[in-house]
Amino acid sequence: MEVWADMACAWAYIGKRRLEQARLGEDVEIVWRPYVIDPMAPVPSEPLEEELRDQVAEGALRALHPAPTSAPALVSAPAGDRSGDGGRGATWRANTFDAHRVVALAYGRGGAALQDAVVERILRAHFVEGSDIGDRATLAALAAEAGLDGMAEALDRGDGADEVRSWLLRGKAEGIATSPTFVVGDTAVPGAQPPEVLADLVRHAVPRRELPDEVRWLRQAETLLDARDPLGALRTLRPLLADHGDDPAVRLLAARAYFGSAQLGRAKETLESLLERTPGDHYARFLLGRTLERANRHPEALPHLRLAAAMSPEPDYVDALDRVENRLADRLTV
């Protein structure tokens, strides 16, 4: 089971407690994957403001993690110092990217058991002790308490950063949109579900059909482009461009990503190279015309758009051709 969750999400902590209550069987491995609720969270962390607190989550978390009636809230409490003094609740708006790196490194170094211990320690530190889990020294100390040493040096070296970025892109491509989301095979259940729902997920999930990495990367890049994340698509395409850079499908996806991210020079170069080999590719011809139009090179764009519209008179092709022809006509009139 994959649990896609943010370490600063109260519902992730609630979901973890409910997951522990579910009867999943000893053969079920639980792996935590990164999800970021607040990508604009600052570095260093800032005190958690009142409007960012979730009183509904606070009540649910208190029910699963009872505290003395005199203790402060478990999810929200007045901001305190970075060290936290126990029982404070979440007090920091923290960027969780480094926390996700520590969680990913825990799995790589010690498997699911060590990762679970690290996740538990980070969540408790944030939601019960009021610690700043955006602070690297704090994270290193928490990881060491859970049995994972060497995190101060690992974080400074950048260990785990590429892995977390790759998983974040994969989650986005697979439609992960809630923290937590529980995934088994090809079945996903969003939200901090009751234990019986999680147990049913394991019993009834459809096994995932494993695909070669090349196919998975290609599909992920296509999905990210459809989601208007061209830079994420380019990051996904890196291994394909390195090993299969001459493949027309890979090159066309890269050209689309270059165009979408306004890297017009690279888009033009890639499309021209592609059209040398496949001059009848009407979409590549259209995209080259659009690239030149976007670069304000309308006379150069015109023949490509005319060819594309002649080969396949699709509405987008005809609209782009009319737009460029009108622009050139206006210039002649002036």
TrEMBL record:
Domain DSBA-like thioredoxin intervals: 2-46, 95-201
InterPro entries (UniProt xref): DSBA-like_thioredoxin_dom, Thioredoxin-like_sf, TPR-like_helical_dom_sf
Signal peptide: none
A Pfam family hit: TPR_19
Origin: domain of life: Bacteria
PANTHER family hit by this protein: GLUTATHIONE S-TRANSFERASE KAPPA, THIOREDOXIN SUPERFAMILY PROTEIN
Protein name, per record: DSBA-like thioredoxin domain-containing protein
Species lineage: Bacteria, Bacillati, Actinomycetota, Actinomycetes, Streptosporangiales
